[in-house]
Amino acid sequence: MLSRPPRIAAIHGLAGFGRSSLSVVIPTLSAMGVQVCPIPTAVLSTHTGGLGEVEYRDLTDYIRPCVAHYQSLELSFEGVYSGFLSNPAQVDDVKTLIAAYPQALVVVDPVMGDHGRLYRTYTPALTERIRELVTAAAVITPNPTEASILLKEQYQHDPIARQPLKSKLVRLSELGPRYVVITGVELVSGGCANVGYDRTQNAFWCVRYDYVPTNYPGTGDIFASVLTGAMVTGDSFPMAMGRATQFVETAIKITFSYGTDPRHGVMLEKCLGLLTQHEVMKNYELL
User: Do 232 and 34 contact (CB within 8 A), yes or no?
Assistant: First the structure.
């Protein structure tokens, strides 16, 4: 039993405004009782989703010395969690950190794009390196766009049926990770869901949620953070999926009710208290 809170090294970008990346990763995991050690890959004045010309600084030269310092202190981590990367060379730094902590849960959120398009900072070289990084993960959390990119398939916006969806989950798992979650899936049977696969148990999971007609930046970061925190603190994989889905759904509904500018992200501050409630989740079903 640990004599301290679980500790996660979070390798993400830091956007000063817009509620995404480390600005939501840190409070989300902290509310769950997890100590976050942020390792910023870049600093940005805002996220890159429609808030004008972003002031941007790459921090590739910071990551490796930071990791070396943590190793010199003999710090231990229960999780290594990567998100937005700004340079292909950073993949090597993340892999170095993963290798240094072989017992840690490795979560890779392959932040590359959405709605069928790559984010503006992602080059073909960086995209290919993210595919490489996924092979070292235990858990990945792509959205449908990122799942298509990882599988080198043409993105299809149409709702997807159960069997093709299961096939996609299996093929993503064959890249390396034991656990795969595809977020924001439209189902042929109706509605939206986050869907997952546990390769070891050969189990497919589905957590449905209510659709709200808008889009907010950072919801993928929040989902992956809650999922990571839940798994590190003892939830089963489907329970963690359920907890993450419920929290993001609630945050979206609360924010939508206020009618705030979607570019400003979800009103995380209104919701964090929910993460301190250790409700046993049961809102998942077999896919």
Answer: yes
